[in-house]
Specification:
By secondary structure, the protein is an alpha/beta fold. It is built from eleven helices and seven strands. The protein has helices spanning 3-41, 63-74, 86-99, 114-127, 151-179, 200-222, 242-251, 253-256, 262-274, 285-295, 298-316; strands spanning 54-58, 78-83, 104-108, 133-136, 182-187, 228-235, 279-282. Residues 58-59, 61-65, 83-85, 88, 110-112, 137-141, 160, 187, 189, 235, 237-238, 240-241, 244 line the site of nicotinamide-adenine-dinucleotide.
Length: 330
């Protein structure tokens, strides 16, 4: 068969597939909405128990990581609080020990360093037991120079927010596969689906984590590892971080939607994780909104998002980080 004929046949096959998919889509959407409604009303999966399990929480020394560590401890899970900021991790452990009867220990590790994470696993297994809950929470958002960011800062954002998740997966997933159970929670951001202009490295890193977890979920399904649950979390801006709060004040993000507390997110995340939810958006309505926007052609998506908040993004260029203003960030 000639190359031209073969290529025409492949194109025809793709076109038939596309027409079939377009014809089926309304039915699929209806079936998905109905099954979601039924599950919500009467047969929501029961939360699994993690009593006596061991969780590694990265970036546990502050903000959302600390709140998630406390929430997991409340459910009876032992906690390895991991942070590059060791005193922060120790502070989290102190709060856990004051409130809950679980074992907790602070560990200093840089999530961008694969070797440190491998050593961390050995230490945690020795101290607390095998890790069956991994929370990829450590993240950075740096805006020292919005219009001309330093290449080292761009690299750091990609390394902490995206690359580190490959290292944690390589270290913590194989033992979960051997045990045939576990939970992986990845803190992405709504910025991964509603891009933030002038914060492109952050946006790209968060979109990357979401795609990474989607591919991982498929791998686990192909390997019939259905008791390893992967949950991606896409929160709006939170009240956990001074720089975000200051940024929100500058560009008025909270006029679009109020900033959410770390504790509120932690409760929703741990509940969703235990029920095996794949993606959690906060607020929940954003899940509908981003799917509707994705139905539009690419140029309309840009117009639509700019229409909603273009003025704010422009004001972003006037943002000065706490560090730049000479205040202590934290
Ligand atoms: N704050 C927000 O508005 C917001 C919104 C959406 C998503 N998120 C995401 O939620 C997560 C937590 O955010 P937060 O507001 O609690 O941040 P935070 O700055 O309060 O805490 C992050 C923690 O990560 C630690 N960390 C940073 N780099 C590290 C490294 N290389 N190795 C180990 N630990 C490291 C920090 O020391 C800190 O304790 C991040 O992934 C962030 O991107 C935050």
């Amino acid at each position: 068969m000639s190359e031209v004929l073969r290529s025409s046949l492949v194109k025809l096959q793709a076109l038939i597939g596309l027409i079939g998919l377009v014809a089926l889509t309304p039915l699929l959407v209806l079936a998905a909405i109905l099954s979601r409604l039924i599950a919500k009303l009467c047969c929501r999966p029961k939360p699994k128990s993690i009593e006596g399990e061991v969780a590694v929480v990265t970036g546990a020394g502050h903000g959302l990581g600390r709140a998630i560590s406390l929430e997991l401890a409340k459910k009876g899970c032992h906690i390895a609080a991991v942070d590059i900021n060791f005193p922060g991790a120790e502070g989290t452990v102190k709060q856990i020990q004051e409130n809950y009867k679980v074992r907790a220990k602070a560990y200093k590790a840089n999530v961008t360093n694969h070797r440190e994470l491998a050593e961390l696993n050995t230490r945690v297994v020795g101290d607390l037991g095998p890790v069956t809950v991994l929370v990829n929470n450590a993240g950075v958002m740096i805006h020292r120079n919005i219009l001309s960011p330093d290449p080292a800062e761009v690299q750091l954002m990609i390394d902490v927010n995206l690359t580190s998740h490959f290292w944690t997966k390589m270290v913590f997933l194989p033992p979960m596969k051997a045990l045939r159970r576990g939970f992986i929670v990845t803190i992405s951001s709504l910025a991964g689906v509603f891009p933030l202009p002038y914060s492109t490295s952050y946006t790209a890193s968060k979109a990357g984590t979401m795609a990474h977890m989607r591919a991982l979920r498929m791998e686990l399904d192909l390997e019939k590892q259905r008791d390893i649950h992967v949950t991606t979390v896409l929160p709006t801006f939170l009240r956990t971080n001074d720089e975000v709060t200051q940024m929100s004040n500058t560009i008025g993000i909270d006029e679009l939607y109020p900033l959410i507390s770390g504790e509120e997110v932690a409760r929703r995340v741990v509940d969703g994780m235990l029920r095996g939810e794949h993606e959690i958006t906060l607020p929940g309505l954003a899940a509908v909104l981003y799917r509707l926007v994705f139905l539009l052609p690419a140029d309309w998506q840009v117009r639509m998002i700019l229409l909603l908040s273009g003025k704010r993004f422009k004001e972003f260029t006037n943002f000065r980080s706490p560090e730049e203003c000479g205040e202590s960030g934290r």
